[in-house]
Amino acid sequence: MQTDNLSKRRLNPFSFPSETNVRFALLILAVCMLAVSISRPLGIITRLVLSLSQGVPFDEAIEPSKLDSPLDSPDEENEGNSFEAEALSGVSEQLGRLATPAVSIFIMLVLATIIYRAHPDRIRRRKKLTPLAHGQYPTIHHQVNDVANQIGISPPPTVMLGEGLRSQNAQAFGIGKNLILGLGGGVRLLLVKAPARFRALLLHELAHIANRDIGPTYFSEALWRTTIYVVVGPLVVIILGLSLLFAIGSLLSGNISGLLLLVVANAVGMLEMSCVFGIPLATIVATRSR
Fold it and tell me: Residue 179's domain spans which residues?
């Protein structure tokens, strides 16, 4: 009797958290960490540009006290301000510091969404996929529908077939309910020579749909592209450009010791960036794999 009860309560593998969803949550956390880490150098760059635009001499603009404090920080003339005014100024300053990472996260998510929405067309063009008509290769349609019914996918995804006979892979992609199963042209031979491998290939890809992994997977890829090409790359270029500007300014002013200090400061800064950015980027690299 006990054996019969246990046999009725079979284990559902889809009841466990999907590994892709866990990685997706880690990726979102890593992107937020990266945006917060980037906020400080962006704030320093902004204050430097504003200082130079207000006519502040270059030697004064690059002082740490100028770069690390807001431009409108209170000085000796404002020491008589009331406690309420100083408290309000402090709150405004902290809100300003929080605005940069918030805006960075928002921009990254918007750009990632645009890239994510474009991924079906990008994959179709890259793999040269065309829709497989119902009259073409009915065995493939039958196998896809059979596996989809077996694991509870309704309706089954749209089947598209690639050109040639060399590629024997498959890839599930799409947005929302408009899901596509892209098959390499070589699966036609695989279906004849090794039907068990062909069915295993379908099970692997359709399991991603059953686990609802498609959205997180391709949004993770979009976040990765946004992080590298839109955020980290331009930031590194800006920092190197400003370093070159500082070096030229030090040479023109004859401040050799300042130039040496700049080299040391850049080395320390790059080490700091490697540590601060390295952890989120390593997490993103580890979580972007499917």
Answer: 121-216
